């Protein structure tokens, strides 16, 4: 098997990195006096208020619209996005992704009917749509997975592609508005990926059955 | 192999800067401009009227269909549209939470047809099935959260 599809030994520190990564973005630490030093929203901080007459307005001002408001708003997102991707990169460096792959692999056969090595592809997809797509193609061409598996893992990837990176890069704008912990939203989206892929698996085994006879 | 952790962080932060400046910023700017055009032309109000029966099933205002439609083209545009609706006070925090997973679950399908399904080599025959699945995922997630907030 090609090297990229072998997880190999996962160090204990890699699991710690994964746990840290999850806690960092979960929002669970935000209420604690000291542990909030490791909370994404807390560290993202706030812009200072700009005082205008008697009223203080936010950095963005009040009542803007159109291209100018859109630009200024997007501009205000840059720091949180830089922080998010910086921390993701750092925990990846310490093996968090490998640990996640290791944990996911054993449950794939029973749930999706695909080989454990697909776990590497799926976790990769959470970070990068393009990398996940290329790895899927490679696994299929190397005959490590059959066409049915390819379609099932493509369904998993297609709905919410690049989820983690997209959520913390593009979605950074929304996180402060959520009325529930971001981790609940992320968990729900990942569960929906599995439900969608299970639905596709059922469809392939019924309506499209003769394609795979 | 033994990189300095500070350098690793900086590398990630640079990636974040690039995504923010070259992907998010132009998309959000576009979404704001489109939202303004649609509002001036009265199309936003029309969409809101047509889709309010469906969207109200998910405790959302009719205008929020604009978020889903633009998310289908691009996740960044969907988020931009959402933010633009938030700044018009059309959605509260509960409604934002309900629609957020849908933006990502059905997001950027048009883009990812090529970038994901095409590159991975999934035969075109199965593309409609996968698109339908993503949209179902999005609506189930919204339904679940709407239900969750209703009972809690």
Task: Describe this protein's structure.
The complex is a heterodimer of chains A (213) and B (152). With 213 residues, chain A is mainly alpha-helical. Chain A is 63% helix and 3% strand. Chain A has ten helices and two strands, in the order ααββαααααααα. A two-stranded antiparallel sheet of chain A has the order 1-2. The radius of gyration of chain B is 18 Å and the shape is globular. Helices cover 81% and strands 0% of the residues of chain B. The interface between A and B is large, with 67 and 71 residues.
Large-scale geometry of chain A: globular
Rg of chain B, rounded, reads: 18 Å
Order of helices and strands of chain A: HHEEHHHHHHHH
Helix content of chain A: 55-70%
Average pLDDT figure of chain B: 90
Percent of residues in β-strands of chain B: under 5%
Strand order of the largest sheet of chain A: 1-2
Structural class of chain A: mainly alpha
């Amino acid at each position: 098997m090609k090297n990229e599809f072998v997880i190999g030994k996962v160090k204990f520190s890699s699991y710690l990195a994964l746990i840290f990564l999850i806690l960092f973005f979960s929002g669970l630490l935000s209420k604690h006096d000291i542990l909030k030093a490791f909370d994404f929203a807390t560290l993202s901080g706030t812009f200072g208020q700009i005082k205008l007459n008697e009223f203080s307005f936010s950095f963005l001002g009040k009542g803007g619209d159109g291209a100018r408001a859109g630009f200024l708003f997007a501009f205000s997102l840059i720091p949180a996005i830089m922080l998010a991707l910086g921390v993701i990169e750092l925990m990846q460096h310490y093996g968090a992704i490998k640990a996640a792959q290791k944990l996911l692999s054993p449950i794939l056969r029973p749930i999706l009917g695909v080989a454990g090595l697909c776990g590497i592809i799926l976790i990769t997809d959470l970070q990068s749509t393009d990398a996940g797509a290329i790895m899927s193609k490679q696994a299929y061409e190397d005959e490590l997975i059959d066409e049915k598996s390819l379609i099932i893992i493509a369904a998993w990837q297609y709905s919410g592609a690049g989820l983690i990176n997209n959520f913390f890069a593009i979605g950074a704008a929304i996180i402060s508005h959520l009325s529930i912990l971001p981790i609940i939203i992320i968990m729900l989206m990942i569960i929906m990926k599995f439900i969608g892929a299970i639905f596709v698996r059922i469809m392939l085994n019924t309506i499209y059955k003769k394609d795979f006879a | 192999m033994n990189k300095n952790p500070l350098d690793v962080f900086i590398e990630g932060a640079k990636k974040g800067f690039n995504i923010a400046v070259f992907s998010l910023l132009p998309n959000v700017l576009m979404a704001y401009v489109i939202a303004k055009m649609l509002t001036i032309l009265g199309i936003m109000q029309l969409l809101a009227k047509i889709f309010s029966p469906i969207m109200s099933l998910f405790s959302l205002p009719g205008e929020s269909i604009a978020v889903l439609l633009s998310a289908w083209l691009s996740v960044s545009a969907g988020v931009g549209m959402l933010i633009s609706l938030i700044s018009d006070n059309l959605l509260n925090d509960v409604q934002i939470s309900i629609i957020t997973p849908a933006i990502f679950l059905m997001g950027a399908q048009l883009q990812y047809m090529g970038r994901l399904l095409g590159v991975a080599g999934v035969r075109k025959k199965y593309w409609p099935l996968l698109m339908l699945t993503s949209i179902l995922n999005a609506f189930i997630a919204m339904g679940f959260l709407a239900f969750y907030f209703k009972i809690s």
